[in-house]
Design brief:
The protein is mainly alpha-helical. Helix content is 76%, strand content 0%. It has a domain of 90 residues. The protein has 2 helices and no strands.
């Protein structure tokens, strides 16, 4: 048995039944329209996210390509630097050898010679500058 009393339609309630049906119909249409708008909004949001994802994928691809190019350039610069360091070492050794010969010649001949010294900055490995931090 229901806890709600059963109401019998009286003549005055019978007249209001079409008004109630009309309100139900309007509410139903309103709910349908609201659901349709909600679905459209959801679909538009999904489309926006898909477009954003495509744009981000393109950006990621460009960044990956740029990173690859910079890495290749870095490898080339490192290779060039290794060659230059080897040449520097070889030239420094040759200069020391020439200076040694000049010193020996200076001692034997007794004539004073201007023997260049190797700058210490050339003998030390190159240290790249450090980035200053912004505090």
């Amino acid at each position: 048995m229901s806890s709600f009393p059963i109401r019998r339609a009286s003549s005055s309630e019978g007249d209001s039944q079409p008004a109630i049906d009309e309100r139900k119909r309007k509410r139903m249409l309103s709910n349908r329209e609201s659901a349709r708008r909600s679905r459209m909004k959801k679909q538009q949001h999904l489309n926006d996210l898909m477009n954003q994802m495509a744009h981000i994928k393109i950006q990621n691809s460009r960044i990956a390509e740029q990173t690859h190019l910079v890495t290749q350039q870095y490898i080339k610069v490192e290779s060039d630097n290794a060659v230059l360091r080897a040449q520097l070492s070889e030239l420094a050794e040759r200069l020391q050898s020439v200076n040694s010969v000049l010193r020996s010649l200076e001692e034997v001949s007794g004539i004073a010679m201007d023997i260049p010294s190797i700058p210490s900055s050339l003998l030390k490995p190159f240290k790249p500058p450090t980035m200053a931090t912004a505090d």
